[in-house]
Amino acid sequence: MRSLVNLTVGMAAAGLAIMALTSCGPRGNKPNVEIIQDMMDTPAIKAQEYDESSPNGSGMRVPPEGTAPVGFEPYRYATDVEGASKMKNPIAGDMENSTLLVGQKYYETNCAVCHGSKGEGGVEAKSSVAAKMALKPPAVVSDKVKGWTDGHLYHVITMGQGVMGPYASHIPQQYRWQVVNYIRFLEKQSK
């Protein structure tokens, strides 16, 4: 009798083990009950798509007032050039290859079109864009720009100046100081 009980318990344990092992597989990853509707497959709307529930029919939404993206730091010197001029460059004097290569990449992508690849400015820049501009961009290797603090240069990159628009959305915040260092490198090369 004892061996029959042991056999029954052993078979039950083996059956439970087989059920447990076979329940985890391709079918085991999907729940069979969706408690909150549309949590598994949320309806997505592309920004350019028509959305009948939107007041203007556009799928693109304006973020709620007072919100900021994760990791975003607002620029506190938006209208204060003097305050921005006092900012200290956290990587001042860092002319390592890694720093200059990042600065060069963003400078050549965003700035060289108007200011020239060597910072020579719109008059001397060998750029089809700068040649067609009525007001030629200044040389970033000029004495005027050399006299600016790193903070002032950072501010002009971030907020723009004169007819130059802001480049805050084109050059990520963490790389703007590297662009400043690259401009300082160009200034040393122009001597």
Automatic annotation (TrEMBL):
Keywords: Heme, Iron, Metal-binding, Signal
Keyword Transport found: no
Domain of life: Bacteria
Gene3D superfamilies with a match to the protein in the record: Cytochrome c-like domain (1.10.760.10)
One protein family per Pfam: Cytochrome_CBB3
Domain named Cytochrome c: residues: 98-187
Keyword Iron in annotation: yes
Position of the signal peptide: 1-22
Coiled-coil regions listed: none
Protein name: Cytochrome c
